[in-house]
## 1
Amino acid sequence: MVDPASSFLGKMLLEEITPVVMVLRTPLVEEACLKNGLTFVQMLQPFCVFNNIDVPVRTVSDQPYRLHKFKLRLFYASDIKQPNVEAAEEHLKEVVTRAAEKDLSDLSSDPPQLDDLLAMNSESLPLWFKIFNKELIRTLSFSEHEAFDHPVACLLVVSSKDELPINKFVDLFNTNQLPSLLNDGVMDPKILKHYLLIHDNQDGSSEKATNVLTEMRSTFGMNDCRLLCINSAKDGSEERIGSLWTPYKTDTSPSQDLGCLLNVNDVSEIKDLMQDLSSKHIIPHMEQKIRVLNQQVSATRKGFRNQIKNLWWRKGKEDTPDAPNGPMYTFSSIESQIRVLGDYAFMLRDYELALSSCRLLSTDYKIDKSWKRYAGVQEMMALTYFMLDQSRKEAENCMENAFSTYLKIGSTGQRNATRCGLWWVEMLKAKEQYKEAAGVYFRISSEEPSLHAAVMLEQASFCYLFSNPPMLRKYGFHLVLAGNRYYMSDQKKHSIRTYRSALSVYKGNSWSFIKDHVHFHVGKWYAFLGIFDVAVKHMLEILACSHQSVMTQELFLKDFLQNVEKMGKTYEVFRLQLPIINMSSLKVVFEDYRTYASTAAANVRESLWQSLEEDMVHSLPMSRSNWLEPEAKSSKKDKDSNVCVVGEAIKMDIEFKNPLQIPISISGVSLICQLFPRSEVAECELTEKDAHAHPYESASGEKNDAEELRKLTSNWELNSGVSSFALSEVVFSMRGGETTVVQLTVTPKVEGVLKIIGVRWKLSDSVVSYYNFDSDHVKKKNIKGRKKSSQSSSKNLKFVVIKSVPKLEGCIRHLPGKIYAGDTRRLVLELKNQSDISVKNMKMKISHPRFVIPGSLEDLNVEFPSCLEKNSNSEHNDVQPSSSKQPKSSLFSFEDAAIQGGTTFFWPLWLRAAVPGRISLYLSLYYEMENLSSEMKYRIFRIHYDLEVLQSLDLSFQISPCPSKLQEFLVRMDVVNRTSSENLQLHQLSSVGHQWEISPLQPNEAICPLQLLKAGQALSCFFKLKNCRKSSMFEGSISFHSLLQGHDVRLGPQGSDKALFDVSGSALADFHHHERLQQGKSIQGQQGTVDFILISQLPKNRADHGLEGQSDLPQLFSHHSCHHSIASTSPVWWLMNGPRTVHHNFTVSFCEIRLGMAIHNSSKEAISIRMSTLDVTSSDGQLSDVAAAAQDPISSENQGGWHNVSLGNDIKVTSDALGTQFGKSSSDVMAPFVWAASSSTRVELEPMSTTEVPLKICVFAPGTYNLSNYTMHWEVKLLGVPLSAGDRTRQLSGRSPGHPYYITVLQSP
Amino acid sequence: MASTACFIIVSRNDIPIYEAEVGSALKKEEAAHQHQFILNAALDIVQDIAWNTSAMFLKAVDRFNDLVVFFQEVHELYIKILLNPLYLPGSRITSSHFDTKVRGLARKYL
């Protein structure tokens, strides 16, 4: 614990609560002193403080003690009065303003750092706080209710030049210029007087003065008179002693030479005078007074009797009405005397006595309800407690008591409360109770006008800062409060200062409203002061205030722009937050060897393209080589950075987001780039290295930002002057909350290394923002065309610019966005080569060959769709599509087509919408440069389209064997029109493959009775399908061509003479091939399956124009349905030939009927067949079981119209079905019949051959008989050929029950 | 009763992760920053107390009877938020469900 006397409060008390000496002087005295530039009091002031006076003092106790430090306060009598309120306010304001002036210099400097603040202690507080506090306390001096400001002595000064000096002395004291304290009877007019005669040595010798002195001594007494000679210095001869006065003279003007006429002798004389005055006159006088008063008090107030009496007496006074200040006490009243006693004791540091008298007094005043005096006494008590360092608690209680009492009495006590609070605060501070001190400051602030409150709040904030642990948030909060008050009292500089300090606390926190408030106001105030650059800097911080209301946002933006305008120049900002750039959405599209037809194509994943192009480009540098293999000799540098071509734009998509709800306008958005021509590349590398070495060196983020900004700005300036590349500029405006993607381009014009550094834009035409992409803390992922995502963004934005090479551009013409399934049309691929160099060796790959296939050049010139029609004069169209020779690969080569520089190239493509749904078509076109010297040997042109395919026709086929003819089948076709509104005209049905021949069921009837198939309508048609394969044709391999050769059936209404389409023609055949690939597993035409193609058309004269108004083009729909099983897997086909009806006279004999069984081997191997006939009687038990199990008359398979023709399980299903038939028929037979001849016949059949086996039955009665009770066993003869993989799944042998054959035998008449 | 209150959940390092202005009084433009200032300053006291007492558990911290239920309920909600595996502790609570629930509770208890 520090000694209270050495604490700040202690020092203050020792300075402020000291005896007051009233000075009365004649004008001539003042005149003499003013020669030195000093008033009389000022001249004496330096000598009023005694640091080592060493005077023995004896007050009430018998023990004398020594007083070491002492001070006198000198005031002119005219100044001893309560200061004028307005003047005092004015004075205080001036103090504050002056402090602000001094601070102005660092307003434009950086705000204080938090660490610096924390390092501060109470000593480093601005000095003007103390001055202000002192001045505030001084506004209360010479109050009536306290005695320590009452003059203890009176110094009467007369000059030796005055006429009749003795009279002057008398006049001085008698004039009514005496302070009201004396005149009003608040204090004893009998005051210690000291008479001083001033002699100016410049006026001549001091003889006259000594005469006067003797006269004085005789008049006023020996000891109370004194002569002081001043101005004895000769000009310039003496050493200067003016510095003595400087601390006391506040309004020093430098021209004046203080104390210029005072020499050392004068000074020592003054010193002696003051010393004598205090030690020989004032102190003894006070001692005396204390003793007298103490005696009086003891006599009247001390002791039991006096106390009772006092109580009694005061009780009687209770009825008197309450005066606001309590009763009036004259100097002679005992209360006033006790107060004087206490204050004198305090001044002489007899704190015990002071305390005891104050205590005594406080009860009196309390009872008297003289609240102001009571508070004053309480205050004094607290101070004495403090000085005694006894009871901290008591001291605080008294202070609090005084404080609240002052407040209680209203406006008159307010300032007193403030003073009391200030003392209280100092008390707490001395005990390091900063937190409590801050609380007291806060209480004071609520009582004072805003200016004073501001100062108090600021001091409170410092208290929070100094408290342990520092309460930074409170510090900030109180600073903001203080700043607010400063602003209210028109002290903007102070406001800025406090807010700026507060910023150090709030910096980096995420309390958005706080930040906005502080920055906004600081900015506003700076703008008031005309310091616009700083204002703008602060305003910048709050621009992206999406959490604020629209009104506030508008206000912020408006103020900001106004300030920028006032700055008078375009303001350059690093990374303006308005609008926000979404770095993760940053996308760079550039074309090296990969070029794109559209942005859509560029947006497709690279891996997709790569998988498409895998076998097209053999020398792709990014082919997946083993990482263990040494790097190819291609330079590493080139691999590291992207490659782009002179004259080809690099596009960058940047997403801007407006965080505000108000519209903003952005202009001049463009990239900032750097291009090092080839010759300077090495230099560029160097700077690169530099840049990589440096970023971590400069630690301070702010500095870094400034650095970056400088770099960007200089680069931009370079940009505008340089012609090595061209930049695009974009202007756009954003609505509130809008997100806009902007595409910026840079087109290099010379070879070298291009770096995209950043982007620059203008907000509202006044603020220029620079944004660099090359920052460590931003990771970009979406960079296009880079496989190594781990690469830093700076690498990604670096491009090696190479010499101009040809680039193909183009599109697919007439590609619809929406199309019905089955729609087949011809498109044109258009390619333009705008360079001078021709390209060659073009290859193309299509992602969906089922949808798009390349045509042949001839297709380009023929008319569609007639080109697909069957050529009338030749049975077979011999023109074969080039692609159909090798349809296995989807890689299409344009053979030796080359595109000359500056020409346009067309190539037909066929489109057929195979299946409904959304389809993304990818086309990749590879081409090589004509001159191989260029750095790029080849390029790839990528085209991407999205296609929506709608449902049109649903097609299904049902094939069942024709019961009456070998190798013939019935075909049922079910068609449903699934379109929403289109009517379709069925045109033709074709079977594919030479071995099948489709024909109408009845040759002369129209198959399709309907003109049009309306939307939603279903239709079933029946056809006959004949296997027309001859054994003779089974020689050599079957060519693909012959496989595709088909037969057609016209479906249109009768009499329509429209040409049929040639399904074996180029495009349709190709599509059919892909369709087969898609629908089935095997390409080879299995003999068990058949493919159909249904061709339909839109009616020519439709009223509505369907999709996308393309009705002018005749539309062709082709539906392919493949791999329809012909419902039998057995290689053996047989048919019973014979009469159906036989007339026989059974009376003569039984009937003998000859039948023939035609057996055909349709397989490629020889087959051995055994046919066994069964007699009905021998197998009834077993067969009836089967009959019971399958009761339904005809198997569901035959009836159901819609079914999937599955390939895998056919064998089982069909044989079962036949089994049921067999069982059923056997049970129907009424009368028995017997097979004649051998019960088992074995036949060997060569491949694709037919034989006839004779059969005979004997019938014993008329009736209808089902001759199905035989079985056919067959076995493939493999002739030592090992089984191939495909054969294993095939059935090599089998047993089939007989087909039903009904024969009716009638009794002939 | 037209009173306004501000409820803020603050995570470590003074980061407000949830803010809600509750109460029936009309919203004032200045209120937002005033609330933040006051609550931010109050954190000093909270921090101070946190060293001296162990009773800083949100459920138990408020002694006012009418507030205690509110805090308990909000605490439950907050724990639910914490249990969300997609919620990064200390990040801003953006769940609209949480917001509506808290406001509902505020209407009910405050």
Note: The mean pLDDT of chain B is 79.
## 2
Amino acid sequence: MLWSQNASPLRSRNGCLVDLSDKSCTFKVTLRNFRVILSWELKNHAIVPDRYTLQYTVISRPDSVKIVEHCSNITASFCDLTDVWEVLPETYVVTVDGFRGNTTLVTCFIDFFLAAFISLEPPEFDIVNFTDHINVNVNFPPVLPKILEELLQFHLSLIIEEQSGEIVKKHNPALDENVIGNFTYVIDKLLPNTNYCVSVYFMPRNLEAIRRSPVKCTFLQPARDTEF
Amino acid sequence: MTSRCILQTALLVYFSTTVLAMNYNLLRFQLSSSSVECQELLLQLNGTSKDCLKDRMNFKIPEEIQKSQKFQKEDIVLVTLEMFQKTSDIFRRNLSSMGWNESIVENLLATLHWQKEHLEEILEDIMQEENFTWDHRTLLHLKRYYLRIVRYLKAKEFSVCAWTIVQAEILKSFFFLDKLTDSLPN
């Protein structure tokens, strides 16, 4: 939607190319471990600021530009905005100034519709195997930030993929809007003495590119013979 | 004879309900696909809000739409029709200042038009087969919302910044349209 010219595409969707960069920086917005992280990279690597300050506003209301306190005079080139941005269907207008000493070396500008551009990294998970089933544990945060509620309620589904040999099955556990803490999904009716691999990812509603987790594999123990 | 009539009537009602029930499943899929298509096309329309912050306006999308209030399925058809229709009307206006890719705009209008026509057919079926009370209040709020957008464009003389702001607003409105669509019954 709102992008600057002279940009190189970050990703494609159904053959259409979209972008999050201006002439000075490339931006990414990512859901990582249930946190919304905006990161940036200068295109000209010869410019090396030692500090950054991020400001933002929104398109849908004539609000003033806001400085994000925990993203002012920072050395890192990313900012956690989970508790700052509460609205998913919004176009955020972001400025990042890069400084060295008292000199502004670079100003990067971007605007983007958050719901369309957030990249969903898979959540961390672990698996516990039993004879004929596998427990898949995903740790949700103890308190869901508002923007995460909106993401989970509507914008994305959790998919658990189970593979054995050539057979892949997808499970789409229903996520309660109040899902917090340890979430366990049971993949049942499995065959003992068989190897299974599990991967977890978020499926965005708008069918954006999926980012799968690394697979975790386990060999289910043989069933015990209980008959005499 | 009476039993036969009752059976025939029951079968007619069953199949009518079944066909309309199937239409809602198909409609949900179609609406979702059209909405995704429209959002993709809107995102392809280039531009930047860099010099446009002074032109921002709160168009106040109706709260019932924003908060995904529970609607009857028939009202969802009416509301989504209004949204596709009004969006189409907006993008048929003076776009000359934008320099947007004409084929993208044409594809957007074609998608909006196709979905609007299909919704009109569904609405005709609903009006013939069912008795219910329309939610006129929400429709009125929606009409006023789109009227605010059109008035804004006219006041700003269809400037580049005005279209950039409206583009973002319409994109947002499709997000809420998706939520409405999701609430159509199975």
Note: Chain A touches chain B through 29 residues (CB under 8 Å).
